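Minutes, project huddle
Topic: does the predicted pose make sense with DQA bound?
PN asked that the exact inputs be recorded in the minutes so nobody has to dig through chat later. Recorded below.
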Amino acid sequence: MKVLVVHGPNLDRLGRREPEVYGRDTLADIDARLVALGAALGAEVISFQSNWEGALIDRVHAAADEGVRGVVINPGGLTHTSVALRDALLAVAIPFVEVHLSNVHAREPFRRHSYFSDVAVGVVCGFGAQSYELGLRGLLGCAAPRAPVAE
Ligand code: DQA
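Predicted holo structure (tokens), as shared on screen:
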């Protein structure tokens, strides 16, 4: 099973960006752990980061043509604004898990609303970089009983 991990705007700055909120792991650290975890769980993990909404949408569209069966996505700030990225995920009908490093519910009120949560398989937030690993585990575990996802 092929899984795409999508990182939204500003996540390329992880490690240096507000470390008291997002921790000190870099995106490369996180991606490397996800590749290893995916391999241990029988999944091929590929990842993509962009600061551009349209590039993220194009990558989600391409995933459908590449046989990607599940997505782990941290939409970053687009979580709270992007109908278009939500629509892209719905358009390709690939099950996805929404993840956030920080606990978005314990921060500014505008971070409490997500355009993704109600259509996600599940949501993980507040565990730092581990949120991604928990999200991948959840996606793969949850995917198992669903035939189209498990193949
Ligand atoms: C974030 C939370 C968002 O509110 C914020 O805009 C981000 C990162 C997180 O991982 O905690 O860029 O998605």
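Observations noted during the meeting:
- The pocket of DQA is lined by residues 10, 74, 76-77, 79, 100-102, 104, 111 (CB under 6 Å).
- The longest strand covers residues 68-74.
No decisions taken; revisit at the next huddle.
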